[in-house]
């Protein structure tokens, strides 16, 4: 192609057609410039396509992580919190109705009351996003929501819940030892095991137990409240990401 244009220029010069030569030369320059601009535009399109592909990949990873967290809450955390609620409600019914409770039944309810959860969330995909630069998320509102969720909201919600668990654990352990003991059991068929037994009578009026009950009640309320906040944050983020991926 270059040889073709060069031959045309040479013929114009040999024929002493200077005016036509300059017009042709200008036209050739314009074509070259247009070619360069087209090449740059194609390159820009390719770069944008690569960035969009990377953004889509990161958003899908975030979405998968959110879905796994939400499923884990449904499978593990919520059933434990519901068990805790059941234990609290059952014991409270006996306490306030002034009913006599068998030791074995108390221990069953107490085992439910003792259910604990440790709040977690997966921040791996967000850390990957940070390493690529938050600006890769083109939607300003979505970028801000993601950043706020993983740097402020989720860490705070999990911290408050887990901090209460860690803070009260030694106190509960100390109080519990005052009214519950371990007992060795030897069955006639030779089986051996250790199980919990009560040290005190009239357990529902025992002050050590009542303190534990009150602490566990506060923990339940904290777990339920924080898990609701975590789920709300993740569900709102899930909706925004799905909407962005559908565009």
TrEMBL record:
Pfam families: DUF6090 (PF19578). The chain crosses the membrane at residues 21-42. This is DUF6090 family protein. InterPro entries: DUF6090. Keywords: Membrane, Transmembrane, Transmembrane helix.
């Amino acid at each position: 192609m270059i040889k073709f244009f060069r031959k045309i220029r040479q013929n114009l010069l040999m024929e002493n057609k200077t005016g036509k030569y300059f017009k042709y030369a200008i036209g050739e320059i314009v074509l070259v410039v247009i070619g360069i601009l087209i090449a740059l535009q194609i390159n820009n399109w390719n770069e944008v396509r690569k960035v969009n592909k990377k953004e889509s990949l990161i958003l899908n990873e975030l979405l998968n992580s959110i879905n796994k967290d939400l499923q884990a809450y449904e499978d593990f955390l919520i059933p434990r919190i519901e068990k805790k609620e059941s234990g609290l409600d059952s014991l409270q019914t006996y306490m306030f109705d002034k009913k006599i409770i068998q030791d074995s039944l108390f221990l069953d309810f107490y085992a439910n009351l003792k259910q604990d959860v440790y709040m977690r969330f997966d921040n791996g995909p967000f850390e990957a996003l940070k390493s690529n630069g938050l600006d890769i998320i083109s939607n300003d509102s979505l970028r801000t929501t993601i950043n706020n969720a993983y740097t402020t909201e989720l860490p705070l919600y999990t911290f408050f819940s887990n901090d209460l668990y860690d803070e009260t654990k030694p106190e509960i352990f100390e109080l519990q030892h005052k009214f519950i003991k371990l007992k060795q059991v030897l069955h006639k068929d030779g089986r051996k095991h250790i199980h919990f037994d009560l040290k005190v009578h009239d357990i529902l009026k025992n002050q050590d137990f009542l303190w534990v009950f009150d602490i566990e009640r506060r923990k339940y309320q904290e777990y339920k409240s924080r898990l609701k906040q975590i789920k709300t944050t993740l569900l709102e983020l899930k909706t925004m990401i799905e909407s962005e991926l559908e565009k």
